[in-house]
Every structure is written in C-alpha cells, then in structure tokens.
Amino acid sequence: QVQLQESGPGLVKPSQTLSLTCTVSGGSITTNYYYWSWIRQPPGKGLEWMGLIAYSGSTYYSPSLNGRTSISRDTSKNQFTLQLISVSPEDTAVYYCARSGTGWAYDYWGQGTQVTVSS
C-alpha cells in the first residue's frame, strides 16, 4: 500500500517561497512509469494540476503558473518537494501530492495540507 504525506508550513507571507515536501512510503519514487504530481485546490474552486516529477527525474509544469514552480526529489529519503516562488493570496489552497501511472489516473493521494498566504 503506497502512502503519501505532505508536510510544510501552513502560513506563508506574500512574495515569499512556498515549500512543501511529499514523503512516500510503500513504493519508490524511482519505480518505472510512475509520476508524482502536485495538485492544489483553492477555496471554492476545482483541482489544479501544478506539475510533476517522473520516475526518471524529469519534470513538467503547468504553464498557468508562469514559471513560478519547481519540483525536485531526494531519492535517499523517497521524497519530492514543491517550491512555488513569489506567492500571493491567490495561492492559498489545499495542496496535495499524488501518484499516477502510464494511464494518468491518480491512484494514490496524500491527505492534503492547507497553505494560507497572508501577511
């Protein structure tokens, strides 16, 4: 059973960098053909895919975030990390990490973590 757990600060000030880590257990983030995504849901809105890091280490980002997103990984800890720079109150959301396979359906999700951007 794969489990994902998000961690990071719940409050970030405007213009700062949001950094969240997803710790994976029960499966390796380097296992072939799995993709590890960050997804968020602002209050009252739908889910927004932010980007992913593949089993190979390749990264892909949503163009809607205008280059503010970076995803990296620490294979020794089986973790992957999201950094979102220059945050504003519009970045307030519940942030999720999730796994998908070659069919692109998400089969495992973290429980989500609330991040509020406020001074």
What's the short story on this structure?
This protein has 119 residues and is mostly beta strands. Helices cover 0% and strands 51% of the residues. The strands form 2 sheets. Strands 2, 4, 5, 6, 9, 10 and 11 form a 7-stranded mixed beta sheet that branches.
Q: Mind explaining what this structure looks like?
A:
It is built from no helices and eleven strands. The chain has strands spanning 3-7, 11-12, 18-25, 35-41, 48-54, 59-61, 69-74, 79-84, 93-100, 106-109, 113-117. The strands form two sheets. Strands 2, 4, 5, 6, 9, 10 and 11 form a seven-stranded mixed sheet that branches. Strands 1-3-8-7 form a four-stranded antiparallel sheet, with no helix packed on it. Strand 5 (48-54) and strand 6 (59-61) form a beta hairpin. The chain is globular, with a radius of gyration of 13 Å. The N and C termini lie far apart (39 Å). The model has no long low-confidence stretch (mean pLDDT 97).
